[in-house]
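Can you give me the bound-state structure? Components:
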Amino acid sequence: MIRTALLVAAKDLRIERRSRVLLWQVVPFGVMGLVLSGLALGPTHAGHSSAGPGLFYLVMVLVALLMINRSRAVEGSTGTRTSVATLGLDPAGVFLGKALALAVELWITGAVLLAGAVLVLHTALVGTLQAVPSVVVILAALAASGTLYGALSGGGEGPATLLPVLSLPAFAPLLIAGERSFSAALRGGALWQWWVISIVALAAYLALGILLYGVLEDS
Amino acid sequence: MTSSPSTVVTLHDAVVLMGGFPLLSGVNLDLEAGSLSVVTGANGAGKTSLLRLIGGLVALTSGTGRVSDIDLKTGDLRELRRRVGWLGHEGSFYDDLSVKENLVFCAKALARPTNEIPGVLDRVGLTSRASMPAKLLSAGQRRRLGLAWILLRRPALWLLDEPYASLDDEGRTFFDQLIGDVVTSGATVLVSAHDPLRSSALHPRTLTLAGGLVVGDRS
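Here's the bound-state model for the whole set.
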C-alpha cells in the first residue's frame, strides 16, 4: 500500500510540475481571492486581522476544489482510467498517494497564502507562524476528504459542479476548526483542543478513504 | 459451467446492462488459449462492451462467464484486470508524462524491472520519442505507446479495442505483425475492428456482433 501510495503521489506531482497548473493558475487564483477578500472588507486593518483566519481558510477551500478536480482530471479519460485499472493497483494505496500529492500542493499554496494573509490581511507574523502546524494538519485533512469526495462525485466523468455540492458540507468542520485554531494562535490562546479535532478529522478521513476508495472507483 | 482446460474465455447467455440499456443481450462464446479472434460489427453492436466484460471492466448482469479461471460474477475482478492487457482506441496513459515516464510508472506499478523499457521502446519503434510528452505523439505513435504498455505487462490475454482506428498502412502492418508474434508466443488475442485483419496469414476467427449478440462466427 505504501509503495503504491508513493508511486501515485510521485506521478501526480510530476504531472503537476510539468503542466504548471498549480504555479500559473491555482496559486494566482488563491492570491487574487485573498486580495479581493481584503478589498471587500474595506480599509480598516483591525477588521482584516480578525477576519484573516476565516478568509484564509475560505480561499483555501476554493483552491482545494480546483485542485481536487485537477487531481481527478489526471485520470479523466476513459482510456487512461481503463489502462490504470488493468494495472491492478491497490485502491487504498492509490487513495493515499492522491491525497498525499494533493496535500503537498495545498501546503505549497497555503504557504503562499499565509504570507499573503500577513501582507494583505495584516495578520500578526508571530501568531501566523504559530498557526502553521495546525494549518498543515487541516490542509492534509482537506486533501484526504477532497480525494474521497472527488471519487464520490464521479471523478473525471462526473460534472465538475457536483463536487462542491457534495464536499462543502464535509469541509465545513475543517474550515471551522482551522479558523478557530488560527485565531487562537493569533490571540495567543490554547490550541490543543483544535489540534485534537484536526488530527481526529484527518485520521477519520484517511480511514474512510482507505476503506471506501476502491468501492467508489469500481462503482 | 464446464470448459476445457485450454479455454481462456467462456461466456454463456452473458447480459450486460448499463442504466437499464442492454449493452450485451446474451452472448455465448468460448475462446481457446493462444487463439486470435476478431470481433466485428456496426457502431453500438457491443464490441467494446464485450471486450470490457472479458477484461473485468464492467459487471456481468446475468448469465455466466469465466475468464482466466476467474468467475465474472463471484470472482475477484481486480485480479482479472491484472491478467489482461487492454488497448483502447483513445489515449490510455498520462499525457503530461513522457513516453518513458509512462512506461516507468507502468513497470513500477507492476513491480517489473525498468531495464526492460528500452527493449520495449525499440520493439514498438518509439526509442527516438522516449523523452517526448505523450500528448505530442501522433495517433499512431500513441497506439504504439499503448502497445508498449501492454508489452511490459506480458499478459496472457490481450484485448485490443479498435487498434487500427486512424492508423496508416505502415501502422496497420506493424500491428498485424505484432499481433502475429503475440499469438505465436501463446497469448490469446481478441481484437475489435470494423474491418477484417489485412494479413490473411494470421487466420483469425471472426465473430460478428449485432444488437449485443453474436450473430456470426467464422473460422
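A couple of observations. Chain A has a mean pLDDT of 84. The helical segments of chain A are 2-19, 21-41, 45-73, 78-85, 91-120, 125-152, 162-187, 192-218.
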